[in-house]
Amino acid sequence: MGKYVACICEGGAERAILDLLLDNRKLIFEREELIEEEVLRCRSGKEFEKRYLRKGFTQKITIYRILDSRSEKFNLSKAYESKVDVKNVVTAPEIEKLIICNEGKNKEYEKEKRKNPSGSRVFIVNLF
Asked: What global pTM score does this model have?
């Protein structure tokens, strides 16, 4: 492996899209370049550090964080800050809605949203 890449997705919709892009070779990196050859779900910098960075990588790791919030923090220990390059890719909320429509789950989503406005996020996560 020439370089190390980690791709971290916040939720199911983002992961579905990333998997589709990876399968169709539409990104600047291939699935084989990814740590564990998969899209990771690890929101916390400390959790990522504990699970992956302590494995003794010899080169810098590029971390692509796919999320829908500009305010989420990804804090790493000082010891690891120089060993990673974090790139945040912020998606529009409409991405999740497009996935819901594509899956034919719009009625269920709208029903959940009326019943419990904050529960619509749970619906999206459970969809995947």
From this structure: 0.74
Q: Give the angle 18-54-34 at the CA atoms, nearest 5°.
A: 20
Q: CA 87 to CA 54: how far, in whole Å?
A: 20
User: What confidence tens digit (pLDDT) does each residue in 20-59 have?
Assistant: 899 999 999 999 999 999 999 887 899 999 998 888 788 8
Same domain, 124 and 82: no
Structural domains of the chain, count: 2
**Structure-token match 């997705």, residue found:** 9
Q: Are 128 and 16 in contact (CB under 8 A)?
A: yes
Structural domain for 123, as ranges:
93-128
98 and 87 belong to one structural domain:
no
Question: Cα-flanking dihedrals φ and ψ of residue 118, to 5°?
Answer: -80, -20
